[in-house]
Design goal:
With about 160 residues, this protein is mostly helical. It has one domain. It is about 65% helix and about 0% strand. It has six helices and no strands. α5 crosses α6. The protein is globular and about 50 Å long. It starts with a helix and ends in a 15-residue tail after the last helix. About 30% of the residues are buried.
């Protein structure tokens, strides 16, 4: 089974849990999307977040890195192209954006709290597991990448900083 199929399976179970099942459980039955006020920003945030996740997971990790977003089946090489040129964790931003967009679209405080909890849990996962694992696996290459690219807040890279 290739990395694209493995990524699809992972996406259904993990981001799918957060972005489909959690809202299904948390939004009251019969609630409808409301495009007034903050709700109008929800759809573009959902679409942008989904596109960012798909770019990172399917193009960057599966195609370039020959792996998946799953910690037990990571990319075989360090991926620093595409969105990873601007921020080290764009995939998490994608999922968080979908959750925040859903919270806005449904005017749902529980979904907003879920988005905040997801981002906090993600930060802890990145700090305690992901970064130490990447340092061991990729060594100096990852250290150089960390010096050139911020963890959470995107910025434009200077030419030649990351190859």
């Amino acid at each position: 089974m290739g990395p694209v199929i493995r990524t699809l399976i992972f996406t259904i179970f993990v981001p799918g849990f957060w972005t489909i099942l959690m809202p299904y459980w948390l939004v009251p039955r019969g609630a409808h999307a409301d495009l007034r006020g903050w709700g109008a920003l929800g759809l573009p945030l959902i679409a942008g977040g989904a596109a960012l996740y798909a770019t990172c997971a399917f193009w960057a990790f599966a195609r370039l890195g020959r792996g998946t977003p799953a910690p037990f089946d990571p990319p075989r090489r360090l991926v620093v192209e595409g969105p990873y040129r601007f921020v080290r964790n764009p995939m998490y931003w994608g999922v968080g954006s979908v959750l925040a967009g859903e919270a806005m679209l449904f005017h749902s405080r529980p979904l907003l709290e879920t988005a905040a909890g997801f981002l906090l849990a993600t930060h802890l996962f990145v700090m305690l597991y992901e970064e130490p694992t990447l340092r061991r696996k990729f060594g100096a290459e990852y250290e150089e990448y960390c010096r050139a690219v911020p963890r959470w807040l995107p910025r434009r890279l200077l030419p030649g900083k990351v190859k």
